[in-house]
Amino acid sequence: MLDNLLAQLSFRLKKTKTGLVNKIESLISGSSGLDESFFADMEEILIMADVGVEASLGFVESIRKKVQIGEIQSGKELIEQLKKQIEESLTFENSGPIGIANIPSVILVVGVNGVGKTTSIAKLANKLKEKRKRVLLAAADTFRAAAIDQLKAWAHRLHIDIISHRPNSDPAAVVFDALQALRARRLDVLIVDTAGRLHTKANLMAELEKIQRIIKREYPEALLEILLVLDATTGQNALAQARVFQKALDLTGLILTKLDGTAKGGIIIPISQELGIPVKYIGLGEDIGDLQEFSPSTFVTALFANADS
Ligand SMILES: Nc1nc2c(ncn2[C@@H]2O[C@H](COP(=O)(O)OP(=O)(O)OP(=O)(O)O)[C@@H](O)[C@H]2O)c(=O)[nH]1
Ligand SMILES: [Mg+2]
Asked: Among 198-207, 221-230, 244-253, which is the least confidently predicted range?
């Protein structure tokens, strides 16, 4: 039996299951043996699901070797090996939940426009509140008035404090005030919403770097997480965005959103591999409960759940 979270995850990943896992299962059941044409087809399925060329070749190569030396003899063993490899590729030293220990934490949330930053912040704030953390929000996306209103509406709905300034005011000043409030009100976690678009990309990166600098300078003893939000439905584009943000900021983790809306959820593998940082949360829908802490083993179990049960 799957527990609730696993069942939700498995259900929301069904597009990727269809695009990746079910295809590999059909390939296994339709093949006469684990031969070269099988491996070529398996490679193609992985690449088509956005697992990435390098990772796909790596997985297939290591499975091919195990078949050659007789360590893998059946389709079932092959699937087990693939699961193990996917899990390993998603596991990092600092995998696991974000650091919200007993010292104040600041979570700076960044990403291009429309990826799901503000929604993910609301979901995360709600999650932390359920864990009895006292949360503060900062509306540092001052570029659009609607962005401030959107975060305010969430704060109101969730009964969470928020620091905001007028539209077009300096985002760094919002963050500065929020850090003072975090300290003065003895709250646990500050989550900072940021703009996804400014007049130019260089402007945006400069602004985010400034915010990062201010947090480190004004509250060095706080635990800082910088989470990049990526939209899984944008595939290789997400990878390109990630490179730009990683250059400018000390990213500590990723939030991969909209995994419910794509058959190419395999993108999670090359993104984590290339950036070398763990996925911390995954977005699985538009509701407040649709954000899960990411666990490589749970993810793989959910993805292959049909094969197991
Ligand atoms: N299906 C699905 N939709 C999501 C998910 N996360 C966010 N969305 C939707 O994506 C849209 C954009 O979300 P926002 O949170 O406003 O994105 P943003 O990054 O803050 O955008 P900007 O403020 O414009 O930079 C909204 O309609 C969300 O409901 C998810 O995990 N799954
Ligand atoms: Mg937003």
From this structure: 198-207
Nearest to 299 by CA among 13, 58, 52, 46: 13
Instruction: Indicate whether 215 and 279 sit together in one domain.
Output: yes
Tokens 């039996």 correspond to 1
Q: Decide if pLDDT at 307 tops 90.
A: no
- Ligand lying nearest the CA atom of residue 229: 1
pLDDT score of 36 more than 80: yes
Total domains present in the chain: 2
Same domain, 21 and 164: no
* pTM across the whole model: 0.94
For the domain that residue 161 is a member of, what is the CATH number? 3.40.50.300
**Range of 27's domain?**
4-92
Ligand 1 proximal residues by C-beta, below 6 Å:
111, 113-119, 141, 147, 196, 257-258, 260-261, 283-286, 290
- Kindly state whether residue 123 falls inside one of the protein's structural domains: yes
Distance CA 102, CA 99 (A): 9
Residues of the chain with pLDDT > 90, as a percent, come to 88
Residue 298, domain member (yes or no) = no
Q: Relative to the alpha carbon of 117, which ligand is closest? A: 1
Q: Which of 63, 92, 121 is the last residue of a domain?
A: 92
Residues 6+ apart with CB under 8 A from 178: 136, 137, 138, 140, 163, 190, 192
Backbone angles phi, psi at 194, to 5 degrees: -130, 165
Query: Bridge-partner residues for 162, per DSSP?
Result: 137
Same domain, 119 and 208: yes
Atom of ligand 1 lying closest to residue 196 CA: 25
